[in-house]
Design brief:
Length: about 150
């Protein structure tokens, strides 16, 4: 049986998805430089219920990263994945992937005040997170977020 994600239109994350996001601290962000070079790197993140924030423990280091420079230089499209394994026996991956736009903002975040990337989700997919959006037999759920 080929598993196909089921498309639905919703405007926000469900309570179980928000609970999952708030329980996690590590994500991977994908950006593309102005020369077209893709990059994926692990990052710490915060989620306030609407936006995701990515920063660094050191502003000096953060301002030299490719992710910061890519967004600063105008390529605001990003991907973000937050995932883990709920269990290895049985195998139970779970997570959330999103596409969105990022902008550089001043923020008082987990690393203190400074510049952060603020990511506005546009489309997200979740898997392995039970809740009202998941129907029996589904393995993933797509959400279109209000922009």
């Amino acid at each position: 049986m080929v598993r196909q994600p089921i498309r639905r239109v919703d405007l926000s994350f469900s309570a179980p998805e928000i609970g999952y996001l708030k329980s996690q601290r590590l994500a991977r962000i994908a950006t593309v430089s102005k020369k077209g070079q893709p990059e994926v790197v692990p990052v710490a993140f915060e989620f306030d219920g609407k936006y995701f924030y990515v920063g660094s423990h050191s502003q000096d280091i953060f301002l030299r990263t490719r992710k910061y420079k890519s967004v600063r230089d105008g390529n605001s499209r990003v991907g973000l994945v937050i995932d883990d394994l709920e269990s290895v026996d049985p195998w139970k991956p779970r997570g959330i992937k999103l596409f969105g736009t990022a902008e550089v903002v001043e923020h008082e975040g987990m690393f203190g005040p400074g510049k952060y990337l603020r990511i506005t989700p546009q489309t997200s997919w979740s898997w392995g997170i039970p809740g009202p959006k998941m129907k029996e037999g589904e393995w993933s759920h797509k959400t279109i977020h209000e922009v």
